[in-house]
Amino acid sequence: MSSIPNSVTRISGSRLAGVAAVAVLGGTLLAPAAHADSTAAPLKVAVSDVTHNTLTRGQGTNSFTVTVTNTSDAAQPFTGDAMVWPGASGPSPLAADQVRTEVVPLHAPATDVSVQGQNPGLNVLFFPHGGTWNKSFQIPAGAAYSWKMTVGAAAGFPGNDDGLDIDVSAGTGRVAAPADVHFDIAPALPDGRLTEKFDGAVTVAPGHPGETTLELHNGAGGKFTSPLNDMVELGSTVPGLGLEYRSGGNWVPAKTVVDGRSWLLPQVPAGFAYQQTHSYRLRFTAAQQPAAPRDLNVSSRVVLGEQIASAQTTLHLKKAAKPSAPATPSATASAPASPTSAAVPAADGSAGATTGGSSPSTTELAHTGSSHTGLLAGLAALLAAAGAFLTVSVKRRRSA
Q1: Rounded mean pLDDT of the chain?
Q2: The domain that contains 264 carries what CATH number?
Q3: 207-219: average pLDDT
Q4: Listed residue (143, 159, 150, 394) closest to 271, CA to CA
Q5: Reduced to 3 states, what is the DSSP secondary structure of residue 168?
Q6: What is the pLDDT of residue 217?
Q7: What is the separation of C-alpha 167 from the centre of its chain, rounded to a whole number of angstroms?
Q8: Are 127 and 199 found together in one domain?
Q9: Is residue 376's pLDDT more than 60?
Q10: Which has the minimum average pLDDT: 97-111, 220-234, 361-375?
Q11: 51, 169: one domain
Q12: Alpha-carbon distance 393 to 397, whole Å?
């Protein structure tokens, strides 16, 4: 990258969120007014002299001319505001060190430049030398100021972004309409997106965890050069509800963001490549008896600066079944019923339930659909007393 001339100073260091927010807010507020009455906007912005419309990662730069014309009969304020976005199909937000930018005055006063992060892109502000981002150029009546803007894709430009869009408007001053230019990033990549999904709904009750799998698939056309964050969130808070993920053969508590509502999963490592899949085995647990059964929406959000993928499923929150009362021994029985007999009585209440009740009950659970969830939860709690809970829950999952 060529050095920036003495008349231009690049301001680097901390990215002031307030600066970017105010700049973007200003652009957002100005745009509707401009479109509503474009004839009244005194400033016209144009882009010309585009050298070519392809950028190669880590190699060379492209330039174009930005011209701002004051069509009114009075001096007008202008602060340059260029928004740099990844192409429409690019799923990865941009970082300041991934895009090279220069703004050099051609027919304008000495200029300073500030590059701010504004997910998913960058906000390039240019303003009078020695001032701050909100200090304006004063363009005389009927005059035009122009700058040469140069951009390049650094070697670290996201591997799955294959385009760059630049919109030039004004942080201050009234512009009829932004000017824009598009660059393709070589090599070209197939169109696609990062997607994720749950493999099914989850049923949870105290003492009865519910499991599901969350799967991410990279169909975006390249690899992610930064780690991905994935968060799981409920539609409302449930006291005592927890989330765990499977790692190394063990269940590990997920990092809590908001108790009983949201959790952060381990990052998907950098280098997540095209057509790769990353899976989380998840388990929800309920430590408290809910006031009443209810269904809750469960959402996942993959975040890389901004949300780039999401998935939804349903969590069925159930109440734990109350233990059954001990069976009353029959008048002819020589001994009280065993705990196993009391926990799982036969349908006819006879003493034969001790030997004949366990296997048929397990078989019935293995073939029962979700419409009998309440009954299954009760039976599972009873079987847990006999040490058969794990077997039943596994068979239930296989039959789902």
Answers
A1: 74
A2: 2.60.40.2410
A3: 95
A4: 159
A5: strand
A6: 94
A7: 24
A8: no
A9: no
A10: 361-375
A11: yes
A12: 6
Report the C-alpha gap between 303 and 292 in whole angstroms. Answer: 33
Quick one: 364 and 262 in the same domain?
no
Instruction: Give how many domains the chain has, as a whole number.
Output: 3
Question: Does 313 have pLDDT greater than 90?
Answer: yes
Show the domain range for 359: 339-399
Q: From CA 176, how far away is CA 168, in angstroms rounded? A: 11
Q: How many CB atoms lie within 10 A of CB 385?
A: 15
CB atoms within 10 A of CB 323: 12
Which residue is associated with the tokens 């190699």? Answer: 59
Q: What angle do CA 245, 192, 182 make, to 5 degrees?
A: 125
**332 part of a folded domain:** no
The tokens for 45 are 């912005």
Can you read off the two tokens belonging to residue 306? 């901004």
Pairwise CA distance, residues 372 & 379, whole Å? 11
**Pair 15, 162 in one domain:** yes
Residues 93 and 150 in one domain: yes
Q: For 13-68, write each residue's pLDDT tens digit.
A: 322 333 333 333 233 333 343 344 445 789 999 999 887 788 888 888 999 999 99
